[in-house]
Amino acid sequence: MTAPRLEVDLEKIEHNAHALVVKLARRGISVTAVTKATLGAPEIVEALCRAGVTAFADSRIENIETLREAGTSTTMTLLRTPMLSQVQRVVKSADVSCNTEIDVIRELSLESGRTGRTHGIILMVELGDLREGIMPGDLKRIARDTLKLPNLVLAGIGANLACCSGIVPDDRNMSELSILADSIDDTFGGTLDIVTGGNSANLQWALDSPDTGRINDLRLGESILLGREPLHRQPIDGLHTDAITLVAEVIESKMKPSLPWGEVAQAAFGEPTPQTDRGEVARTIFAVGRQDIDPLGLVPPDGIDLLGASSDHLITNSGSKRLAIGTERTFQVNYSALVRAMTSPFVSKAFIAADYKKPAPSIPGQ
Ligand SMILES: *Cc1c(COP(=O)(O)O)cnc(C)c1O
User: Fold this and answer.
1) Between vectors from CA 242 to CA 240 and to CA 246, what angle results, nearest 5°?
2) What is the DSSP string of 282-299?
3) Catalytic annotation on 148?
4) I need a labelling partner for 109 at 20 to 30 A (CA). Which of 99, 156, 180, 250 fits?
5) Domains in the chain, please, with CATH?
6) What mean pLDDT value characterizes the chain?
């Protein structure tokens, strides 16, 4: 097998997704699985379907198109508000899109009419994180304008927190979303299908809150793929945190002084990281770099410390012993390293298929 590569354990991903689907179902909340960190890998979508996920979302139309070409026929939502320049592609491949701008919604309506389709609209509301969203006071007006447009369905409303400003989903902002849903229903009649509360950062609130109100959907990516909640990056009980790992190959390993010598200026990526004098150490280089991963997002295996990274080299201290050239080591990845590795053409993806003769994994806490 070639290196560097991401090893994706499909059974662990299935387990994580199934555990979250079951826990949230008890609270009346369904899971929309977010595939944006997987570059539209159909293998992962299949594993998620086996776990009981029935709706998918991605922030890039390209990934949704890849999944459609691979034969995925489940509901697909585009998370990022569509670019006007991509409206045709959005209507063709996504069933639903999240929106904040009436100019875009109008074009989605026109394109749906032209192609004989019906497109679902989720209006995203700003609840304080200051990334995407309609200010709450403007929601009714934009909902009214949307409802007047042909070939669209107002499928729901939603919010996204903890992405730009780290604002925590809580009873206050989530009940604001519920109240907005009620007021849209009261004003226009009918019932909004989807009230999507947020991403993996909403999990703790969703599982612990005494009242989840109208929230009936969460859009989960990181928690399924990496088994962690994004607010404090703590492992989620009963979930695998190593479903996806990065394997890299040793290309140099030599005993060298731990301090550089010569006059110091900038390094390839700005100021050099200050080093401490540990005497002579085994400096081991892995053939993977900033083009492939976020070096700050890697956790090395025991006995190896990260020292720095340039475009193509990951420089480590492997202690008092050299590592054999050509051997491989496995690193844990965080979300940032995962996204970079998935989208790097230099990193191959190895899917470890599940063994379906085994009984389904039991869910912790059941
Ligand atoms: C990325 C994204 C998600 C998923 O976030 P995770 O933290 O990976 O669960 C959900 N909603 C929107 C709008 C997103 O952009």
Assistant:
1) 165
2) EEEEES--TTT--GGGEE
3) no
4) 180
5) 10-226 (3.20.20.10), 244-352 (no CATH)
6) 95
